[in-house]
Design goal:
210 residues; alpha+beta; Nuclear Transport Factor 2, Chain: A; six-stranded mixed beta sheet; 6 strands; 54% helix; disordered N terminus
């Protein structure tokens, strides 16, 4: 449990890190997904790590970043899986809205925990016509062990979007899919009860920041 908590904690700050580019980079074509990761992390540092900026401003900035840099709808659809297929149109719309809110409320305050971590880009690998993985190593200050971070990206209409992040081989999307499946089993497959619980989680996270 302690190891899993550490990995989740690393995930919460991983997109709030500066990039230290590796020497001997690949060719210009391979640089494209790497450049996207560089842009994403620099944007996060500039916009989200300063705790003196009002939370509502940081929240709005994170919402914009998630909308522009992450494949939010694809991620949300995949992590709920078959349960979403069985939902009504109104339940699907409510889920998408609630999921996006839960993600931003959960992460916005964690960016302020950035403590000088740096990300070394190792290489980019094309895994299909539309997807690439950028392999990186997070260097942690204070003598802590480095951590392997893989960024799975999808080319959507000529623009890279984050589809998943793997911390030491653990997929964050898969972890969330398992969590949601477990919650649905506990609730007997009741979609409305599931959505109520997600909304309550988002409210609780927001309340803790007050």
């Amino acid at each position: 449990m302690r190891e899993w908590t550490l990995k989740v904690g690393i995930f919460h700050i991983v997109v709030a890190m500066g990039i230290v580019m590796a020497a001997g980079s690949a060719n210009a074509v391979d640089q494209k997904p790497e450049a996207f990761i560089e842009e994403l992390t620099i944007l996060a540092i500039n916009d989200l790590t300063d705790a003196t900026i009002p939370r509502d401003v940081r929240l709005e900035r994170l919402q914009t970043m998630m909308a522009e840099k992450f494949a939010g709808k694809s991620i949300a659809t995949w992590v709920l899986g078959r349960h979403l297929k069985r939902a009504s149109e109104s339940q699907r719309e409510r889920y998408m809205t609630t999921y996006a809110r839960l993600m931003t409320e959960s992460y916005v305050d964690r960016f302020t925990r950035y403590n000088g971590e740096s990300l070394e880009i190792v290489r980019a690998e094309q895994i299909s016509d539309t997807e690439s993985v950028v392999k990186t190593i997070m260097q942690r200050p204070g003598g802590f062990e480095s951590v392997k971070i893989d960024w799975r990206l999808r080319d959507h209409e000529g623009k890279w979007l984050v589809l998943d992040i793997l911390v030491e081989g653990v997929s964050m999307a898969q972890a969330q899919r398992s969590e949601f499946a477990s919650t649905m089993r506990r609730l007997g497959g009741d979609m409305d009860a599931f959505l109520d619980e997600l909304e309550q989680r988002a409210l609780q996270v927001a309340a803790r920041s007050d």
